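Need tokens for this chain, all 68 residues.
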Amino acid sequence: MSPALSRILIVLIPEQEHRQFIQALTEYIIEGYYAERGFTVAYAYVMHKALTHNWRPTLWPTIVTTLI
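Here are the structure tokens for all 68 residues:
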């Protein structure tokens, strides 16, 4: 997903639900991407949290995948 688009969409989600939303979106995208191509994938991800230049919290995942 485009970072610009994700910044627009995330404001529609209450801040206390950001982590759950990003986790669900990450899993949906990874599983759908590989399933559509006929692959089974094992994956793990870590959620990072930081503050933006204007002190707003931001979350993003780092994903590691392995085809099985």
